[in-house]
Amino acid sequence: xxxxxxxxxxxxxxxxxxxxxxxxxxxxxxxxxxxxxxxxxxxxxxxxxxxxxxxxxxxxxxxxxxxxxxxxxxxxxxxxxxxxxxxxxxxxxxxxxxxxxxxxxxxxxxxxxxxxxxxxxxxxxxxxxxxxxxxxxxxxxxxxxxxxxxxxxxxxxxxxxxxxxxxxxxxxxxxxxxxxxxxxxxxxxxxxxxxxx
Amino acid sequence: xxxxxxxxxxxxxxxxxxxxxxxxxxxxxxxxxxxxxxxxxxxxxxxxxxxxxxxxxxxxxxxxxxxxxxxxxxxxxxxxxxxxxxxxxxxxxxxxxxxxxxxxxxxxxxxxxxxxxxxxxxxxxxxxxxxxxxxxxxxxxxxxxxxxxxxxxxxxxxxxxxxxxxxxxxxxxxxxxxxxxxxxxxxxxxxxxxxxxxxxxxxxxxxxxxxxxxxxxxxxxxxxxxxxxxxxxxxxxxxxxxxxxxxxxxxxxxxxxxxxxxxxxxxxxxxxxxxxxxxxxxxxxxxxxxxxxxxxxxxxxxxxxxxxxxxxxxxxxxxxxxxxxxxxxxxxxxxxxxxxxxxxxxxxxxxxxxxxxxxxxxxxxxxxxxxxxxxxxxxxxxxxxxxxxxxxxxxxxxxxxxxxxxxxxxxxxxxxxxxxxxxxxxxxxxxxxxxxxxxxxxxxxxxxxxxxxxxxxxxxxxxxxxxxxxxxxxxx
Lengths: 197, 476
Description:
The structure holds two protein chains of two kinds.
Chain A: E1 6-9, E2 11-14, H1 21-24, H2 44-47, E3 64-67, H3 79-87, E4 91-94, H4 99-108, E5 111-114, H5 117-129, E6 135-138, E7 143-146, E8 149-152, H6 157-165, H7 169-174, H8 177-184
Parallel strand pairs in A: 2-3, 3-4, 4-5
Antiparallel strand pairs in A: 1-6, 6-7, 7-8
Chain B: H1 5-11, E1 14-16, E2 23-26, E3 29-32, H2 38-46, E4 57-60, H3 77-93, E5 96-98, H4 108-114, E6 123-126, E7 140-143, H5 146-155, E8 157-160, E9 164-171, H6 180-191, E10 199-204, H7 206-209, H8 213-221, E11 230-232, H9 237-243, H10 252-262, E12 275-280, E13 287-289, E14 297-299, H11 313-326, E15 341-344, H12 346-349, H13 352-362, E16 372-375, H14 380-388, H15 391-398, E17 401-402, E18 423-426, E19 441-444, H16 447-456, H17 462-475
Helix pairs in contact in B: 2-5, 6-8, 13-15, 13-16, 16-17
EC number (chain A): 4.2.1.33
Catalytic activity (chain A): (2R,3S)-3-isopropylmalate = (2S)-2-isopropylmalate
InterPro entries (chain A): 3-IsopropMal_deHydase_ssu, Aconitase/3IPM_dehydase_swvl, AconitaseA/IPMdHydase_ssu_swvl, IPMI_Swivel, LeuD
């Protein structure tokens, strides 16, 4: 996984709540068997509207997405995270994320930052007024900075450590493989099996 | 202090617990399908890893599979490539697969329970958010992303932070004509699409205890639509009777031991939930959605709400956007909204009881002119049972299309889609913009409402059908 330490970039203010994963990446894109090439599918339906914020010339190259509450609801498709990353986003800020989307983002190094809606309102106002406004997300200090705004965010220490170091969960788990083997030895015989091997 | 059902199942699966780390949970059953697994198998290959527990892993094909001409090569080359990738991966890694054409093929969340693989007190995961379905058995079941699919394939475990618990207590009895789908849509409208976020839901109370296993699956299936990764129901005699003698149910002494364990899987009387919601079943009625998320629903007898009536600014904005997308006006009666398409199927309502319910309403009627009705069984086994009962004849006689098993129009990854601007009454689980096809508009409904809607051509309940038919009968 790509490590995340600190990132500064221009923002896309997305004044939508309940942005579901079908909007982030429609299902027909899910037929691909790779983790890349999803950038053109990101918000595909909304991007057909020339007035959609992502189509504004001043938002090109922006890397920080600031969205309304309940971002990433719906399907478990990790393709939603890949699409955001393939497009160039490094971080998404919202007042609330859907659980599965949040988990997927943190496993891919896309930092999802939870801030109070008042702070998001302020960030929207700031970045709408001046699209060149730099927004910094610092995982070391767990703070978001923009001119006149400093806001702290929570992230549990374990997730933060894995992100800062770009650590792969599977390697960490396999480090404790003996505990998995020990657990397996205690499983009752009535537990279901798909094969007899 | 006592523990909740969710806490008991969780505690029984902790492989490793350490300060400052998420718990490492053992996974009893891993279900795979073609969409969310290819990148996970690639990861295994790149790192020289194998599938740790092939005997706890099973795959089927559902999202991309066509529901017509299944004996011919799949027309869409991208869909075909994805299915071929799953077949190659399962062959290479030794995973049991039920492909298109196999008698055990079907929607992954229909296949697991009907094989008896989904059992009380197990942990079940799948790269699909509707894995919450399996919680109906008192399993802890949740959807995962592809990175986690790879993690489970490689280690048969998942690091997870323990969610909070929420009781959804449904008091009383569901009125005649009100189904499990109406109940769960009403729950989601009540707590919102984010209301269950961070929680495992436990549905309990007399109205839940009276539900059949299939109805319980409908309820748990849509937990994710309330933002909860998992929803559970304590196992009881209904659960045990459903499981007995299924192909993978325990047998002999193992059955006795299993049932003894399963009986312990009830929330203790002195256990405390982090949140509680009480619903009065008697107050419920057929329920439909009017908007573009599953929380935007109302009783069929209500009108499209006025966005101005919402105090919360983001809800108001969401309602305005939804009405605009759906082509509806505030104050318009929900009953009477005309539809082009009716879809009966999906992991929410594609089981035999759902098909029976739809067929019972449809029998003796015709699908309205200009309405297309698709009936897609959740699995090949469901289809075979339906044929044995003659339900396929009821559907085709009424003018509906009887199709092969799969996810189909729930998400339109196969050719079963809405055209732009088309409107459906759908027994599936999501009414998101474009979910059933670009520009398509979806109203989520129960199988009974779907069938009545097909006959009348507008959103309707079976009761409307009797009333509509009454004058005609009197004239004969």
